Amino acid sequence: MTAQPQDKKKMTPGEYLALEKSALDIKYEFFDGEAFAMVGAGRNHNRINVNLTVELGGKFKADKSTCNLFSNDMRVKIAENYVYPDIVIYCGNPEFEDDEFDTLDIFGNKRSVPYWLSGFWGTIRSSECFS
Length: 131
Hints:
single chain, three-stranded antiparallel beta sheet, 8 strands, 31% helix, 24% strand, globular
């Protein structure tokens, strides 16, 4: 007898957010109805992320810019997906999905740019943001 592939049950955004908020030490991203556990980044990835964050933050401050940034622990909503970009640059006041201020709404922040340093997901996500 051959095992047959099972259709995965798609999660709703509400189910994902409940999972995410109940997880004590795991972050999940949500893409097209599926939750994906996040893995830790390597040493070089972290160095690049910290260096970019410091440089961009310093530049925004020196220029007295209305732009600012969040680093990799800010959950971002893009359409019906939830992701953790390495860096998010936003200009003006950030707009959040709800009163918990833990999810930046990319479509509420028209002048926002999420950025991923590497990987397959970054390619897909970046194209999804602006399609």
